[in-house]
Structure formats: structure tokens, C-alpha cells
Amino acid sequence: MGTATALYGDVPFSQATSTNFPNPAFDPQVKVYTAVQALLDSAIVNFNSTAFTAFTAQDVFFAGNMPKWIQTAYTLKARYYMHVHDYADALTAATNGISTAANNFLAPHSTLSTGTFNLYYQFMALDRPGFMDAKGAFAVSLINPVGANYRGNTKTIEKARFSYLYSSATNPNYTTTGFFYESVSFPLASYAENLLDLAECDTRINGFNNGLTRLNTFRAYMATGGYIGATYLVAGNYKYDPYVAADFAAGGMENNTATKLTTDRALLREIMEERYVTFIGQIEGFNDTRRIRKETDISLPIPPTTGTSLPQRMLYPQIEVDLNRSTPNPIPGLFVPTPVNN
Q1: Residues 296-320 as b or e (16 or more Cβ within 10 Å = b)
Q2: How far is CA 50 from the centre of its chain?
Q3: Which candidate, 68, 124, 275, 316, has a CA 20 to 30 Å from the CA of 213?
């Protein structure tokens, strides 16, 4: 429901699961986020309870490991606080969030049957081969060493991450070792996300020094390989050395554009860029782009494929429009920001 309200804005929630409401009302987006936070709080209480019913055999994610579920709940809380620009509460939640890559909340995939495949693989390799590619994608230009906007520098080499995510400048990597392969589990909430939540929120709340320490913790994780597939971790193909304050001072390697920023805004710009490439293939990249669209000094210059504007939401499905008389009228258009991003 957090993802649904992020993508669509107002959605059916309080009346959605009751047959007493054949036309469930669309709850305001902010109220849905509040309700989602309450559900997560309830989940944390339950996971901490000794009376909670064990479900090890049914748990395909963590085999009943309660601490991992609790950390996942806190990372999701941080995510949804960030969606509504509540960075203080997001920082508090992320402090209790996913603390190691071993605790990642992943959608498990395998080669056993079509129903267990990574959905990207199923779509790109089996159902619609050639239908979708990465030609002209802004993300490619950021991490492709020969890309027009390559983000590499003397402390950063992105060749391994690029190769893990893309088989070429035009194709996502769904080969046997690539990120989108059929048996590769997919991140739903991750240690990488939580580290970057901490980096952004600590910068916003407590300033440059705290944020830089947090970002360097993420870079230290990536310097060991991070989430990049082991096949691609060839010496010389990846590097994430720690940044220092001078890198973000006016004229530094992370603040050498025509418009110089203050050090904390330059750091935030780097964090947002790192979030964007870390979330390639994941919905949080889209959520971030809309969340910070008014902060033009740290927003990424993502060019629309057509026209002059980026989409701001998903459209309500036609079946909802046809069958639910409570569907908003007029229906919000593709480029109308959701309330939290208005």
C-alpha cells in the first residue's frame, strides 16, 4: 500500500477489503501513508512478542527470523517517511533498519518454473524479447565509463556496476550472472537503501560532517563489492574510495560544475545521484526523482524521452475507473504531481 499510494496518490485503503463497500472510497495520500506507518508499528510490536505465532516453514524470505523482519519494517518506515519529506523520523527509523546485506529483504527467484523467475527476465527474455531496452537511458550514461555523464572520478570506478546491470549501453543484463537474470533475487528493501537513507537524512538533519560519514560508510560497503555480482568484481573495475570535505568544497571533484553549491548541498547532490544509480530497476528511483523535483540544485538533470516534463504518477487502471464509482473525477493526468510532491 505504501508503493501504491506513492505511485497513484489517493487510493482505496480503509474501505478496500470490505464487501460492505462495493465502491471503496479513495483515501487521501497523506492518510494512507499514516495508516501504513501504523501497520508497520503494529508489525514491529508483533515481531517483538513472544506470543507471536511462529511461521518459519511458511516464511520464504527470512525463515521466521524476527530480527530481520523488524529491521525490514524499520527500513520501510524510513522509506515512507522520506516520501512525505519527514526526514527526522526517517533518520530515527533507518537507525534501526537493515544493518547488513545478509538481512536484505529480497524477492526469491529460481529457475524451477516460470512462476519463480525474476519478472524482468521473464518479460525481457521470454515474453517480450526486444520490447524494452536501455537505449538513451540517463542511468546508463552515469555509470558507463564511456557515457556522456559518467560519474567516475579519481576515487570512483563504475565499470563493474555497469557490467552487472547492463550487458551493453542499450540492454539490461539478464545473462546468467547479471542483475536481471531469472534466478537472481530482487531487492524489495536493502542494506544499500538503508545506508543511503541514513546518508541523506543525516545530512539534512545534522549537517555535512554526519552526512559525509554516512556516505563513506556506503562507499566502504561498495568497495568490498557491495551488491554487485561476484563475477564482475575484477580488480580495477570498481573503486569507491572515501570522500573528504575538500571534494565538496567549491571547485572540488564533487562541486566543480558551473554553479557551485554549498558543501552540504553538493554532498546531497552526490547522495541523490548515488541513490539514483543504486535504485536502477527499482521503483525508489522514480519516487526520489519526484520527491526532490523542486530542489533543483540537487535534482538530477534527467531528460524526458519525449516532451519537456517527466511523469509524476501512474494512471489509475481502467478496470478501477470502470468498476469503482468512487474513482476521482476528473482523473489526475500523468504529469499531475501526487499531493505529497505537489
Answers
A1: eebbbeeeeeeeeeeebbeebeeeb
A2: 32
A3: 68
167 backbone φψ class: left, alpha, beta (φ>0; ψ -120 to 50)? alpha
- Per-residue pLDDT, averaged over 192-215, amounts to 98
Q: What is the DSSP letter of 156?
A: E
Which cell is 21 given? Answer: 463497500
Longest dimension (CA), the chain: 63
Nearest to 192 by CA among 275, 263, 133: 275
Report the Cα–Cα distance between both ends of the chain, in Å, rounded: 20
pTM score of the predicted model? 0.96
Report angle CA 247, 252, 258 to the nearest 5 degrees: 140
The answer to whether 91 and 198 have CB atoms below 8 angstroms apart is yes
For cell 524482468, the residue is 120
pLDDT at position 18 over 80: yes
**Of 103, 31, 109, whose CA–CA distance to 73 is shortest?**
103
Q: Of 212, 214, 223, whose CA–CA distance to 267 is shortest?
A: 212
Segment holding 97, helix H or strand E: none
Q: Which three cell numbers stand for residue 319?
A: 478496470
Cell numbers for 162? 555497469
Q: pLDDT tens, 58-79?
A: 999 999 999 999 999 999 999 9
